[in-house]
Amino acid sequence: MAAFDLLDAKGVPLDQQRFTWKDVTPPPISKLDDDAFTRIRVILMNGIEVDSLRLKHLIARFNRELREPLAQVRRAEQHQCTTVNWLLGADHSPIETTIGYEQVAIEVTAEVAQNEPDEYLAQTYRFGLLEDFDHLYRYSALLDRLEGKDANNILQGYTDIVPGRPTVDEHRHPLDDIRSPYERRSAHAASKIHAAIITAAEYQTHDYYMNIGPLFADPMARSLYAEIASIEEQHVTQYGCLQDPDESPLEKWLIQEATEAYLYRSCAESEPNPRIRAIWERFLDYELGHLQLARKLFEDHERRDAAEVLSSTPALLKFQSQRDFVRQVLDQEVGYRVIGTEFNSAGNESERTLGYRASINADGSPSQAVAAGYRWRPGTEMSRMAA
């Protein structure tokens, strides 16, 4: 694919975007035969599409004039979202899918953190990264406990399975999960797109855990999903705060469409499965059409140039193992804590957070209990059979 500018690329006009039921229910990827980063792209793009639908519904509730174009774009994105989500197959158990979700959080957040031009935002991503890293460890212990499986069958060796910042220590008072936003008039386009990406990814993870957690019969699994879902809500709060609240609804819509087009382009560039790559390329063209519509509405209604909001196209997101970077952050920043909007390396926390944590953990911590005595080793189930 040739280089392109987000605002200049035309894509497929909305009225030419068509779907059939065969289109939106494609054959799923293979749990073992497809590369783990194909699954990462699938989970990420489902989260992006769901968040795009959510944002457009919210804008429509507050803006009568935009209801018709929003409804038209939402219908196309509903079918894109279905197509992407249906790529996950029944060969994944709910816990294995959970392992995939946490791998997305780790690998994508690590990539974003390294490419974020604003140091405060980059620090926020690194801070949350170490918490998702610990969630992967806890869920890997649950997979071993309930299914006797090695989480590395899903991770394929790209991501380490070791503790991060302990989940039991991640519970904070709500006022200590607020973060300072970028400034919409001066922020780099990459900062706006990064914040949209990570907020959407964490929102999806939160909703998945809230939906799947009650379906387990095992009390430990139910408790663990409840605990980590609470942290995911904290993460949605944290990352959502990074977006400037003074952006207009149309400005946020414009950024969202740019984010989708940017990510589909990134996915298409790195996807080794030709069938899946064709989906990314098709939806890239569709999202560029949505972006052009959002641009026109933005410029017509606000009398502003869209280039003021999206001054440049960031370098494409790379889908590759971030093991070395994650290990470095784990070694240097696992002890970081936060008070209000400010991070500190001394491990200082507010009395309100210490009180909240003591209260919520008063009856024990599921994340501690599930990993008691657990140490990951390669080929868990096979090594047990040989023992």
What does this structure look like?
By secondary structure, this protein is mainly α. The chain folds into 2 domains: 1-91 and 249-315, no CATH class; 93-246 and 319-387, Ferritin. The protein has 14 helices and 2 strands, in the order H-H-H-H-H-H-H-H-H-H-H-E-E-H-H-H. The protein has helices at 21-24, 36-62, 67-85, 94-115, 119-147, 152-155, 189-212, 219-240, 249-270, 274-302, 323-333, 351-360, 366-370, 380-386, and strands at 337-339, 342-344. Strands 1-2 form a two-stranded antiparallel sheet. Strand 1 (337-339) and strand 2 (342-344) form a beta hairpin. Helix 7 (189-212) packs antiparallel against helix 8 (219-240) and helix 9 (249-270) runs antiparallel to helix 10. The longest helix is centred in the middle third of the chain and has 29 residues, at 119-147. It is globular. It starts with 20 loop residues before the first helix and ends with a helix. The model is unreliable at 381-387 (pLDDT under 50).
Strand content: under 5%
Poorly predicted ranges (pLDDT <50, ≥5 residues)? 381-387
Strand/helix succession: HHHHHHHHHHHEEHHH
Distance between the termini: 51 Å
Mean model confidence by pLDDT: 95
* CATH T-level fold name of the largest domain: Ferritin
Helix fraction, binned, reads 55-70%
